[in-house]
Amino acid sequence: MNKFLEIKSLSKSFLDHEEKINVLSKINLDLKSNSLIALTGPSGSGKSTLIHLLSLLDTPDSGSLFLDGSEDLFKMSDSKKTFYRKENISMVFQNFNLINDLTAIENVMLPSLYLNNNKTESYERAKNLLDTVGLSNRQNHLPKELSGGEQQRVALARSLINKPKIILADEPTGSLDKKNADMICDYLLSFKNKNNLIIFATHNRSLVNKCDLELTISDGTVKSA
Sign (positive/negative) of CA torsion 122, 143, 207, 53? Predict the structure, then answer.
């Protein structure tokens, strides 16, 4: 298998009233690009923990992480992690996390501008992405003027603006009805390619069935379903 994302001996624990809770225990995974992967498991099993580790927003107790031939991402300095994340990793959240006083297109442009990319080019790419997710007529609307499904499509477009190598989504359809949830999943499927990998945590079985692979977390381990 063509390795794209390599996870080696990944472990993470938390302290709860001085009791050590092992959430993830020596996880080993080799995942290929051009894949949409569903991460499943009961509430509290560690789905969000794994998503946050892969996004470099949290630090493991031990383990290594390699993305498309990179050095061990967990060994990078904090400043280097921040820059690497901006260039190569995107997150999609259940509650959208749009900036309320920015329009849809401004929200989509923002990650590109953080990298000091050309403003005109960032605008054109954001415009094209909004068109791709069916929101060309809503680009100048504020988040409060958009439905939940529309806000999540803006968030999805924003996650793609820098052409990330990995897109991570934590229950991205949890706040949506079935029609909009199916739409978001279909867009995720359409955006996978040989240069990226998409992983999303979900409880929605109908969405899981559309994915290339299901990974289930249980008792600190991750297994292919």
Answer: positive
Q: Which two tokens stand for residue 173?
A: 């359809």
Domain-wise residue ranges, the chain: 5-224
Q: How far, in Å, CA of 189 to CA of 191, rounded? A: 6
CATH code: domain 5-224 is 3.40.50.300
Burial of 12 (0-12, 13-18, 19+ CB in 10 A): buried
| Structure confidence by residue, pLDDT tens digits, 160-182 | 999 999 999 998 888 899 999 89
Beta partners for 36?
Answer: 198
The structure tokens listed for 99 are: 């900036």
Which of 189, 133, 186 is closest to 158 using CA atoms? 133
pLDDT, one tens digit per residue, over 112-168 is 999 999 999 999 999 999 999 999 999 999 999 999 999 999 999 999 999 999 999
